[in-house]
Structures are given as structure tokens and as C-alpha cells.
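C-alpha cells as discussed.
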């Protein structure tokens, strides 16, 4: 399988006028958020911090609504957070917050990455309609009186993943690139 790497200029001539309008709107919102980031990182005033946090929350809610609007127009894009019940979002949001927190240590980060992938695959493929299963057999630490093995039933996603692309957007940051950078740090 060959690797395809796209750069922004590869989209030149392919984006519609509406696409460019969406990009300009999102860029404007993100620039406003960066102003808030700057204020939050430099202010010493609690009042100014609260005001800027409120502004940032409003900006991110607006960006989320715009992302939903953009994705609704393209039926081949499925964003699970837009199509899953709101009550499922809390666990993922807490996990992503831990992954992005500067105070999260290396070992804790690795744990949360593993948990993120579990959630991702459960969300994408582990629903009640998923009847086709694969089995994962793993050796356990228990070896008395004989070596024990655990059998885990997991969703068979091979057919569903064929000819698809999956990425996780974190308001402008890609989780896979975060994972790669931490894995390089972890294993170097």
C-alpha cells in the first residue's frame, strides 16, 4: 500500500467558492481564539481571565456549529460527535483534556492514548448492530497450574476500514500527529 501525503496547495483549484468562504470564516474565528490564548497566557487579572475564558468558550461553540454546518453538506464525511448522543461526549472530552494538558506525564499520556483508541473504535464500530466479531487471544500473567489465556471478543472492522480514512480532529489539532510525536518521544 502506498502512502499519500497531501499539502494545502494540492487543494488549489479543487475548493469551491463556498469552501473558501467556510475556510475564511473558520480562520477568522481561530484568529480570535488565538488572541484569547494570548490574553489568557499573560493576564494576571482574575476578572480579565474569566472574561476571556467566557469569550473562548463562545468562540469554540461557534466553531463547533460551523464545523457541523460544513460537514452536513458533505454526506460522505461522518463526524461521530455530531451523530452520537450528547451523553456519550463527556468521557471523550475528559480524555482529550488529559491528553492536551501540559501537566499530563509521559506514562499517563500513553495510558490515555490507549484509552482514546478504545473509545474511538467502540464509538465507530462497537454499536449494538455490530454482530460480526473477531477474537483476540492473549497470554495472561497467570501460569499456575498452567499458562492461562484470555479470549476477548472485539468488533471485526476490517471490511469497514477498507478504502476509508479516519482522523480525529481536536479543534484544529490532529490526534494522530500528537500520538506519533509522543510515541517518538516514548521509544527514542
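Sequence:
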Amino acid at each position: 500500500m502506498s502512502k499519500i501525503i497531501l499539502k494545502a496547495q494540492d487543494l488549489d483549484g479543487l475548493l469551491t467558492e463556498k469552501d473558501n468562504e467556510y475556510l475564511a470564516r473558520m480562520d477568522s474565528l481561530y484568529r480570535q481564539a488565538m488572541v484569547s490564548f494570548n490574553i489568557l497566557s499573560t493576564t494576571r487579572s482574575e476578572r480579565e481571565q474569566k472574561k476571556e475564558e467566557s469569550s473562548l468558550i463562545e468562540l469554540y461553540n461557534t466553531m463547533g456549529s460551523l464545523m457541523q454546518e460544513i460537514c452536513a453538506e458533505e454526506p460522505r464525511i461522518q463526524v461521530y460527535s455530531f451523530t452520537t448522543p450528547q451523553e456519550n461526549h463527556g468521557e471523550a472530552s475528559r480524555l482529550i483534556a488529559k491528553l492536551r494538558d501540559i501537566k499530563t506525564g509521559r506514562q499517563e499520556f500513553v495510558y490515555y492514548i490507549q484509552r482514546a483508541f478504545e473509545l474511538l473504535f467502540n464509538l465507530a464500530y462497537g454499536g449494538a448492530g455490530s454482530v460480526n466479531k473477531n477474537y483476540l487471544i492473549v497470554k495472561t500473567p497467570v501460569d499456575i497450574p498452567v499458562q492461562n489465556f484470555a479470549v476477548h471478543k472485539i468488533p471485526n472492522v476490517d471490511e469497514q476500514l477498507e478504502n476509508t480514512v479516519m482522523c480525529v480532529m481536536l479543534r484544529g489539532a490532529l490526534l494522530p500527529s500528537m500520538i506519533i510525536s509522543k510515541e517518538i518521544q516514548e521509544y527514542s
